[in-house]
Amino acid sequence: MRREASVRNTVLIDFDGVIRHWSSTELDNYAASLGLESNPLFPCAFSERHLLPAITGRISHEEWCDNVCFDLSKDYGQNVAEELVKKWYSLEAEIDYDFLTKIRSQPSFGQLVLVTNATSRLNNDLHSVGLEGEFDKVINSSEIGIAKPALNYFHIALKKLGVSKDNCVFIDDTPKNVEAARSLGIESLLHSNIQETLQFIEEKCA
């Protein structure tokens, strides 16, 4: 008896670098206005020792900012550190709403799930840009206590969604995350441009 192929109708999609896009220019220019030759905030904030606790829920987004401020103050002084972190906290990103609309317009589209390494501020961020109801489900690393590319992140996500690896596709802009998902047998794409990603969804979810 011939076994029918599984239908892939769940799109697991990353947030930053795929849907939400940040520019470093504004903060770099602000750092220069404070007399700094380069912007030290990003190397500090996104170092593993600061980032990992924030995206696995061990500390809040605000605690992350406070920790970064404390470290920066050691080398650049309290005032400069506070100004940099305040500016960082207030930065606004660009959201690709048109991309999301095009994904949902795919004929065989089922559900769209946001799977992201994010801090405790994610829900507020989604609300502030009008995306709070855009995704059918949200899997936030800081809420489940583990971040991509850990394999258990994907196991937990699939269990929460009630879908199997054969019923979904995964899209991310970080190679390690894509490699991890592929190692579990999840059809995955390293996002580089919208056209390629839409074609991938169309072909794999047909």
UniProtKB/TrEMBL annotation:
Alphabetized GO MF terms: hydrolase activity
Source superkingdom: Bacteria
UniProt KW Isomerase keyword: no
Record Pfam families: Hydrolase (PF00702)
Keywords: Hydrolase
Protein name (Swiss-Prot/TrEMBL): HAD-IA family hydrolase
